[in-house]
Amino acid sequence: MKRFPQIGLLLVLLFLPTALLHAQDGIVGWTGTTMGPIEYQIKVVAPESTAVDSLKKEIEIVFDLLNRQMSTYLPDSEISRFNNSSTTDWFTVSPATAKVVSRALEVSVKTQGAFDITVKPVVERWNFGANKGEFQMPTPEETQSLLARVGFEKLAVRLEPPAIRKTIPDLQVDLSAIAKGYAVDLASIRLAELSFQNHFVEIGGEVRAAGKKPDGSKWRVGIEKPLEGVRDVERIVELSDVSMATSGDYRNFRMIGNQRYSHTIDPKTARPVENQMASASVIAADCMSADAFATSAMVMGPKAIGELAKSENLGIYILEREGESCRSSQFGEIPFADAEPVSQQGEGSPVFILIVSFAVFAIAILAMAVGAIFSQRTIKGSCGGISATTGADGSSNCSVCQNPVSDCTEKNPAGSTSR
What we know:
The chain is about 35% helix and about 25% strand. It is α+β, with helices and mostly antiparallel strands. Strands 1-2-6-7-10-15-16-17 form an eight-stranded antiparallel beta sheet. Strands 3-5-4 form a three-stranded antiparallel beta sheet, with helices on one face. β16 and β17 form a beta hairpin. α2 (about 50-70) packs antiparallel against α7. The chain starts with a helix and ends in a 44-residue tail after the last helix.
């Protein structure tokens, strides 16, 4: 017990910095593809010992099931079988498919038809679908024929028992403008069920940010500049417990002569949109809604977007082409991060190191005090052990402790920690 002050201090100095530096978990993650060639990435706040392969399998089970339900690339998916049928009776589907179709029809009503999942034949005719071939411009007669096959009001849905129904035999559905967002939501829900509350899910640019990063900061996402052939960041947003989706025409478009045709189809004309919209980023509570409203914004154009943002409590950031450049507009609240924080409150940061150092100092003093009480001895040698060493004349090398013990002022030189 008589040696407790020195031993206690040694243990504190050896183990406390390490304990504090690793008190916060790190980030584990992985990437992959789903829904055909669409790339995804997932980041999870978790210990480095987390079995990533097992976690990845859990999420891929979610993605595989959704593909079997809603993919137009799989001929035996629920949607593909519905599209290939000519019946106008109720067609049984999974609760998930019915939920997505129901939300799609709600967005169609809210956007006055700007969002419409029945545009599949138009998308394919313009060679923006799965089966791309030699292209020729649709004739006016073809366009009228396509319009007769399009219209969200020709589609019905019920949730219990889950089923969808077409009112014309050749109606077809494409959920690609909403299913990615729903897949993000499902992955986020599954991660939370597995007790990973803080995570980041991104599928093809659609994002769900849940909780925060290990250092307590929000997840950061970049909005791309609508540039062809290069990638550059327009703005950075900070997200927590919210979703964001971006739709744009700078990656998928068609040039015919000098005319540019966007892959975004206007359901009312059965043609690519003809406004100056380059991209629309939408922040919403769930990614399924953000996904659908981002597509809607591209069709609606800037004049109608403000009312949509207000009525649906959305944050919308749009970029419109203006000559060789773009101009931006913002509707609703968007948590932009205009600059890097001065200091990060994470492992290895100056602020964190200062906190660790202060804690080491305080607990060291407490340890010595407790040791002194148990040993019933006066504290000495508090110059970091220097008092135990002597010079040639036998006196202590600690100038302060050369004075009588009763006059000795406690000293503890400042220290630093690093990973």
